[in-house]
Amino acid sequence: MKPIIAASLAATLAMSVALPAHAQISTRTITVSNGIAEEHPVGDGVAAMRACYDEKTGGAWTLNAFWSSALGDDLQATQALRSGTQEMVITSSSPIVGIIPALGVFDLPFLFANEAEADAILDGEYGDYISGMMPEYGLINLAYWENGFRNLTNSLRPIQSLEDFDGMRVRVMQNNIFLDTFQTLGTNALPMAFGEVFSALETRTIDAQENPYVTIDTSQFFEVQEYVSATRHAYTPFMVLFSRALWENYSAEEQQILVDCAIVGRDVQRESSRALSEESLARITEAGMQHNEVPEEGLAEIRAAVQGVYDRHKDTIGAEVVDRMLAALEELRAQ
Ligand code: KDG
């Protein structure tokens, strides 16, 4: 089933290249939602995607963006795409693993070593392999953007070693792999939608959360957290998902514009995310957060502690999905 869908998607896109100039571009209004504030680098990506639409459709398309979970959290927005009531969502892969178990591969702890590896995997054959699964869930993945490497913030103590996690009430995304990872580290892990995190930290319902520096900054977590430790324990991609039901009402040329402009947005968003990361770290420390690198010995202990998460979730994610990821990383690292 999957190869046929992937092939039909590829054929559709290929056809668009050959279409005559008079191919159909209709007047359209596209709604896109995200869980973070517009000040996050995702805002730069959306602005670039909007400018790309203007250029390629001569202003026939309007892109309306909704921020900070205004149209519901990632899971709710993704379900709206599947039911054909919303065009687009930019969501982390993690909160929708309950719908698409294979996406759990990206939540395996310490999977990617750096952004270059993440880009090579996501924009290469492996990323296409995962995107090829989306149509069967009623979704089209237009591109992978960057949420980024995740670091732990908390109100109790710096994380220097495994024992520093003990008993900490850590919010995690609604995802069994993150839940297992942080339970294995000795925390009291609490799954929670992103939109609820700030108030839970503010009321001390939870002690900690984990996100990239740009999210800690643009979501003002520095106002309610004291410590930020550079754990880099996972790299989360964003997926620019489109409703398959609505996609099928677009001409092949319009579908190509959606893909091309999502890629234009991707390059701008990633560049902005990486440029802002150091600025965000400076801003959150200036705001009073204490930042620490995790000592090598402590990090080695933490990585060893969570290695078992891979085997425990391999069947749920899909053995082929995990094996192909590890093979792709091995090949990349051998280059
Ligand atoms: O829509 C944005 C969310 O997908 C993103 O912020 C998820 O990193 C995330 C979190 O911690 O929930």
Helices and strands in order:
Layout: H1 2-18, E1 28-33, H2 41-57, E2 61-66, H3 74-82, E3 88-92, H4 115-122, H5 125-131, E4 139-149, E5 151-154, E6 169-172, H6 176-184, E7 188-191, H7 197-202, E8 208-211, H8 213-218, E9 227-230, E10 235-243, H9 244-247, H10 252-286, E11 290-293, H11 296-305, H12 308-317, H13 319-334
Parallel strand pairs: 1-2, 1-3, 6-7, 9-11
Antiparallel strand pairs: 3-10, 4-10, 5-8, 5-9
Helix pairs in contact: 1-10, 2-10
Residues 34-36, 74, 91-92, 95, 147, 173, 194, 211, 215, 236 line the site of 2-keto-3-deoxygluconate (KDG).
Number of helices: 13
From the N-terminal CA to the C-terminal CA, the straight-line distance is: 33 Å
Low-pLDDT runs: 14-21
Structural class: alpha/beta
Largest sheet: 5 strands, mixed
The CATH architecture of the largest domain: 3-Layer(aba) Sandwich
H/E series: HEHEHEHHEEEHEHEHEEHHEHHH
Number of domains: 2
Helix content: 40-55%
CATH class designation of the largest domain: Alpha Beta
CATH homologous superfamily assignment of the largest domain = Bacterial extracellular solute-binding protein, family 7
Please describe what this structure looks like.
With 335 residues, the protein is α/β, with parallel strands linked by helices. It folds into two domains: 162 residues, D-Maltodextrin-Binding Protein, domain 2 (3-Layer(aba) Sandwich); 140 residues, D-Maltodextrin-Binding Protein, domain 2. 46% of the residues lie in helices and 18% in strands. The strands form three sheets. Strands 2-1-3-10-4 form a five-stranded mixed beta sheet, with helices on both faces. Strands 8-5-9-11 form a four-stranded mixed beta sheet. A two-stranded parallel ribbon has the order 6-7. Helix 2 links the parallel strand 1 and strand 2. Helix 2 runs antiparallel to helix 10. The radius of gyration is 20 Å and the shape is globular. About 2% of the residues have low confidence. The protein binds 2-keto-3-deoxygluconate.
